[in-house]
Amino acid sequence: MAQQTPLYEQHTLCGARMVDFHGWMMPLHYGSQIDEHHAVRGDAGMFDVSHMTIVDFHGSRIREFLRYLLANDVAKLTTRAKRSTPEC
């Protein structure tokens, strides 16, 4: 059985057609691909990347290190929160 990302239930509630992608249940599309394309172009889109990797950092100066490494301000994150961000 394929694993489910934290957003799996939300994907299914939104009508996603789910497929096994390298051991993870991922959305293939949400109905009409043309309608989906226009929705993303006209408003916004989101891509679930939670299946890609989990990275845990530990240490007394971890916030300082991540603030140096990442473009987003990690001081605004709460415990167990996540945010996509480019590395600098």
TrEMBL record:
Transmembrane segments: none
Residue span, GCVT N-terminal domain: 7-79
EC number: 2.1.2.10
GO cellular component: cytosol
Protein keywords: Methyltransferase, Transferase
Record flagged with keyword Thylakoid: no
Biological processes, Gene Ontology terms: methylation
Single GO term (MF): aminomethyltransferase activity
PANTHER family recorded: AMINOMETHYLTRANSFERASE, AMINOMETHYLTRANSFERASE, MITOCHONDRIAL
Name used for this protein in its record: Glycine cleavage system aminomethyltransferase T
Gene for this chain: gcvT_1
